[in-house]
Specification:
With 71 residues, this protein is α/β, with parallel strands linked by helices. Helices cover 18% and strands 27% of the residues.
């Protein structure tokens, strides 16, 4: 659960958020745990409040992500 991870994770927590600092311009001094939410709802407020930093991951307009699921 969120509470367990927040209470027991030993590294700094970084959350992806559209209002965060550009991840490509961010310096990390140590190992971090990166929390990424879904595109519609993002990361929960609990994770945002517990994180050490908010970062955004900008998409390049020329990059497309395609998922293919085979049955």
């Amino acid at each position: 659960t969120e509470k367990f991870l927040i209470d027991n994770f030993s590294q700094k927590l970084i959350c992806a958020d559209m209002n965060g600092e550009n991840i490509y311009k961010t310096t990390f001094e140590t190992d971090v745990g990166l929390i990424i939410g879904n595109e519609g709802q993002g990361v929960s407020e609990n994770f945002k409040n517990a994180s050490n930093k908010l970062v955004k991951i900008p998409m390049n307009e020329n990059i497309y992500i395609q998922c293919i699921k085979e049955f």
